Amino acid sequence: MILRFKRSEQPTIGVEVEMQLVDLKTGLLVSRISDILSRIPATMHERIKPEFFQCTVEVNTDICRTVDEAGRELSERFDYIRRLAESLGMGLICAGTHPISSWKRQKITADARYKRLLQEFQLLGRRLNIYGFHVHIGVTDGDKATAILNILRGYLPHLLGLSTSSPFWSGYDTGMYSSRIKVFEVLPTAGLPPRVGNWAAFEKLVKILIATRTIETTREIWWEARPHPKFGTIEVRVCDCPSTLEDMLIITALVQALVVHLSRRYEKNTLPEIPLRQLVEENKWQAARHGLDGYFIDYQTNHTVGIREALQDLTNRLMDTAVSLGTGGYLDKVETMLQRGTSAHRQREIFRRSGNLNDVVHDLMEIWKP
Known about the structure:
The protein is an alpha+beta fold and 370 residues long. It is built from 14 helices and 13 strands.
């Protein structure tokens, strides 16, 4: 089997945002994606799309050269969807889960592929009423992509910690800062990416998975970061959906700087040692359970360090790369995020003050408005 990796000469950017459709008055999820799609031109169907559940709308950028360009596209499309949704009595929420609405009441999108997946995953599939934020960064070839991915997986906990937005789910306080990541990782081709030696090894793995009917295409490898051969990118999928455009762009800039930094080290043959999977798993648990208030195991010293400190250290190490990409201003804002907290921190504070998850829902709707 030959799986060709489309070459990307520049570290281009693509962003995918999974948004929640809610009733404008109650804030509860509504299964009305068809009402949206029937009112947009066919030319926009590649950028505004349905997902597994009818209460989800996915908004994508084109191939962008810069974070600023991605921000302009997202802003325009968000505004377009918001105005259209409001004309139909709907609002929008960006978060990894809906704090109140139950997954049991959501309708599956009528699509042959989704029906097949639901047949296979059964109850676990119905529980996947969760919302992610995906960032694609262009790389030149498959061997580089797999080499970068082996190191990048060690930083997926950092990106999760900075994006947590799913502490409440189906009316429950989960005790987590990201419940979404734990819901999604139960699927057989989800979770942390494995260590992959090179592009030929990835091709062999895909061949086996397809031959055994584990997957139909590479689209069904749902690792928290994966190579995307069709687009010629590394796709980072670990993040909860941030609740504001500003946070989305900060995280996008951080992902781009990280991939480019590792790409440059690959070219100099100076990539660090691949982190042990068990240490990465523990760090991911800390980010999901405690958000920015947890600790990470440092892969070099094996000592623990606070997640905020680990993120600040990562940002400092990536700053020169970010400046060369014109995104130093975005990385400067990471410190602000560390001080004020993520969407999950805000949601928990609102619930602490009022004791009412409805207040959390309406705040999520409010902060999304321009």
